[in-house]
Design a protein that fits this description.
Elements: E1 2-6, H1 10-21, E2 25-30, H2 38-41, H3 54-74, E3 79-88, H4 102-105, E4 109-110, E5 122-131, H5 133-146, E6 150-153, E7 169-172, H6 178-181, E8 188-197, E9 205-208, E10 216-220, E11 225-228, E12 232-233, H7 242-255, E13 264-274, E14 279-283, E15 291-295, H8 305-320, H9 334-344
Parallel strand pairs: 1-2, 1-7, 2-6, 3-9, 7-15
Antiparallel strand pairs: 3-5, 4-5, 8-11, 8-12, 8-13, 9-10, 10-11, 14-15
The structure holds flavin-adenine dinucleotide (FAD).
Flavin-adenine dinucleotide (FAD) binds near residues 11 and 299.
Length: about 350
């Protein structure tokens, strides 16, 4: 089918990549240069944050974990597996189950006392994918273009404005703008301010969601370190706040004292595309051609990206073959995806 994908962030490009792989003729429509997308600036650590519904998120996250882990093993640019420490401020109840996300991660253990920063007594250790989006997203774009996809730069005010591109199906993955394009007013911004600093030699991600000063997380990357952050529901302002930058530096230094010597490179603000529930849905009524929505990923668009794209691909199959069972896997099962990741890394 000729499929128009609106949006070239993580959500749109994962769909474009999968559907191109499955032989579809893809046109990607996007308004902004890549560095201006939310996906490009994200801390981009695998961790479900501010996203629902829980059951689907667990499945999408687990799928995406597998893809990213395979990509990291295959050497796809920008993906790595990162040792992580989540700090807890209370010991928890004995026998209390581990958080839901831990099922996708597998090996989660209690941190040893010598692994905890001063003043902390409890934490969990595990390994998750961390994605450096300034390397990952351009590589994904190049793969989509190399598959023969066409690129159209256009700012839409309504999804119907792509009909002149002769689509047989449209995918709505326009991030924060996606709801507005289709008359869905249930989206809201979740402002996030993060600080990019020099890396003083850290190789462990650390987070304390309950820090009294606000959420604190430290994500070391290959040449810098992302410190966060804020999660301001309903705030549209994208101007960096200097007082907030100072507060982020202070609380992150509490959980990673080596940051005392770091230098600030820049402060970045983005708007997470908030919605009570991610909308991955086939819509046959909106346009003369079917639409598959894929938006509202909140603080987890990277964490669920490949899993959501897999569901989108299943809906596309359903349109192609209405006798197919809805929600069936779209032919990108674990082994295929590992092979695909190998192919992407040229191995
Ligand atoms: C500070 C911060 C930290 C984050 N950290 C993480 C993290 O650690 N882990 C994680 O999983 N997630 C994280 N997120 C969330 C994640 O970034 C988002 O959920 C994700 O990027 C959403 O991707 P998207 O492709 O839907 O939207 P976007 O990346 O915003 O892409 C939207 C696309 O649609 C296009 N578009 C927009 N409007 C129009 C229009 N009118 N016409 C045509 N095209 C249009 C844009 O040009 C763009 O190509 C973070 C977000 C922020 C702000």
């Amino acid at each position: 089918m000729r499929i128009v994908v609106v949006g070239a962030g993580m959500s749109g490009l994962c769909c474009a990549r999968l559907l191109a792989e499955q032989g579809h003729d893809i046109v990607v429509v996007s308004a902004d240069a890549m560095p201006r997308t939310t996906s490009y600036l994200a801390a981009a650590v695998w961790f479900p944050t501010a996203v629902g519904p829980a059951e689907a998120v667990a499945r999408w996250s687990a799928d995406t974990f597998d893809v990213l882990a395979a990509e990291a093993a295959a050497g796809v640019p920008g993906v790595m597996m990162r040792e992580t420490l989540v700090l807890n401020r209370d010991p928890g109840t004995p026998g209390e189950p581990l958080p839901e996300w831990s099922r996708a991660v597998g090996d989660v253990r209690a941190a040893r006392p010598d692994e905890l920063p001063p003043g902390y007594h409890h934490g969990l250790r595990f390994v998750v994918p961390l994605v450096e989006m300034p390397a990952y997203l351009p590589n994904l774009w190049n793969e989509v273009l190399a598959s023969g996809a066409q690129q159209v730069v256009r700012r839409l005010t309504s999804l119907s404005e792509v009909l002149d591109l002769d689509p047989e199906l449209v995918i709505n993955a326009a991030g924060m703008a996606a709801g507005g394009l289709v008359g869905d007013d249930s989206m809201f911004p979740i402002r996030g301010q993060i600080v990019r600093v020099t890396n003083p030699g850290l190789d462990l991600s650390v987070r304390d969601e309950m820090h009294p000063g606000g959420r604190a997380y430290v994500h070391p990357r290959s040449t810098d370190c992302i410190l966060g952050g804020t999660l301001d529901v309903g705030t549209w302002d994208t101007a960096p706040d200097a007082a907030e930058t100072a507060a982020i530096l202070e609380r992150c230094t509490d959980i990673a004292p080596q940051l005392a010597t770091c230098r600030v490179i820049e402060t970045v603000v983005g708007l997470r595309p908030g919605r009570a529930e991610v909308r991955v849905e086939l819509d046959q009524d909106l346009l003369p051609v079917p639409v598959v929505h894929n938006y509202g990923h909140g603080g987890a668009g990277i964490t669920v990206g490949w899993g959501c794209a897999r569901d989108v691909a299943a809906y596309v199959r359903q349109v192609e073959d209405p006798s197919a069972t809805p929600g069936q896997p779209s032919g990108i099962g674990g082994e295929d995806r590992v092979l695909a990741a190998d192919a992407r890394a040229g191995t």
